[in-house]
UniProtKB/TrEMBL annotation:
Its EC number is 2.5.1.97. GO terms for molecular function: N-acylneuraminate-9-phosphate synthase activity. Residues 294-352 form the AFP-like domain. Signal peptide: none annotated. It is an enzyme of class 2 (transferase). This is Pseudaminic acid synthase. InterPro entries: AFP_Neu5c_C_sf (IPR036732), Aldolase_TIM (IPR013785), PseI-like (IPR051690), PseI/NeuA/B-like_N (IPR013132), Pseudaminic_synth_PseI (IPR020030), SAF (IPR013974), SAF_AFP_Neu5Ac (IPR006190), SAF_PseI/NeuA/NeuB (IPR057736). The keyword Transferase applies.
Length: 353
């Protein structure tokens, strides 16, 4: 897989800033103006991109009350059917070209998760710059194949995938000549418990699949996102709403604007702190090194006195001889008078005996 991927005007790579995505999902609450307000909040909070979802209840599932279509997996949506849930959560398709234009005017990259073949066609007409494959679609191989054939970058979540599912999805993309794939570590639970996140998978995923990796995070707060960046995530996706109290299908695990901004700020600080592998010292470290330990005369001494643990000590600062010479100097005599605080130097040591 390619290690440098362009999404719009943004480069995604090991040495590029983390690409931060605000996921709107159902948080628009079927209000166009609210959708625009969420995009503005994303921009103000420092997001690089806004992501929506492109489906209708009838393109993502069937209007059926049979047990298979009931939500009973212990989620926040239990007690309804898939079709009824998506009736409240989908983003009207007629909004989407308008939202894309407004987002781009704000300076945001706008893209979407399609959920069937017709939604890919629709998004191609909109000329989105990248596609997102949601966790639950990773095993829809004809769907992934069609996305791969567009030649556009693909961000792929892995929240319900076994290793073999990921391998098959990536192989499908390669077969279509598309190696611009970013894999996101994801835990499909809403909200996701911290103990189920397993962030150590991020560097493993990078090594095993030899690709750019990131994190789709459904935990509360920003700690997991920051830790993910420290472990190598180059893309971070989090849900954003205006206020959780406003409700909606995804509100319970979404960030509010102030929280999202705090997360972005932490990510940018963490990027600086992660830095690079180096054993060199910065100019400030070199200056601080002046206060490291070295050998000093610790009591007033007369010429001919013998160095002992009482009058020769390793102390701060670093003006004297290196501490590695301490044992060698014990028992030697001093060549001249020296007062307490004199840094040790070789001319103070009598080697004639």
């Amino acid at each position: 897989m390619n290690k440098e991927i362009m999404i719009g005007n943004r480069r995604i790579s090991e040495d590029a800033p983390t690409f931060v995505i605000a996921e709107m999902s159902a948080n628009h609450l079927m209000d166009f103006d609210r959708a625009v307000a969420i995009m503005q909040a994303a921009k103000d909070a420092g997001a690089d991109a806004i992501k929506i979802q492109t489906y209708t209840p009838d393109t993502i599932t069937l209007d059926c009350d049979d047990p298979c279509f009931q939500i009973t997996q212990g989620t926040i949506w239990d007690g309804t059917t898939l079709h009824k849930l998506y009736e409240t959560a989908y983003t009207p398709w007629e909004w989407q070209p308008k939202l894309k234009k407004i987002a781009e005017e704000m300076g945001l990259i706008f893209f979407s998760s399609p959920f069937d073949l017709t939604s890919i066609d629709f998004l191609e007409e909109m000329d989105v710059p990248v596609y997102k494959v949601a966790s639950f679609e990773i095993n829809d191989i004809p769907f992934i194949r069609k996305i791969a054939r567009t030649g556009k970058p693909i961000i792929m979540s892995t929240g319900i995938a076994y290793l073999a599912d990921i391998e098959l999805a990536l192989r499908t993309c390669k077969e279509e000549g598309n190696e611009n794939v970013i894999l996101l570590k994801c835990t499909s639970a809403y909200p996701a418990p911290y103990e189920d996140i397993n962030l150590k998978t991020i560097p493993s995923m990078k090594e095993v699949f030899d690709c750019v990796v990131g994190l789709s995070d459904h935990t509360m707060g920003c700690a997991v996102a920051g830790a993910g960046v420290a472990l190598g995530a180059k893309v971070v996706e989090k849900h954003l709403t205006l206020r959780r109290a406003d409700g909606g299908a995804d509100a319970a695990f979404s960030m509010e604007p102030e929280e999202f901004k705090e997360m972005v700020d932490h990510i940018r600080m963490i990027e600086k702190a992660v830095g690079k592998v180096t054993y060199d010292l910065t100019p400030k470290q070199k200056k601080s090194r002046e206060h490291s330990r070295s050998l000093f005369v610790a009591k007033d001494m007369k010429a001919g006195d013998v160095f002992t643990p009482e009058n020769l000590r390793s102390v701060r600062p670093s003006c004297g001889l290196h501490t590695k010479y301490y044992e060698e100097l014990l028992g030697k005599r001093i060549t001249r008078d020296a007062k307490l605080g004199t840094p040790m130097s070789w001319d103070l040591v009598d080697f004639s005996e």
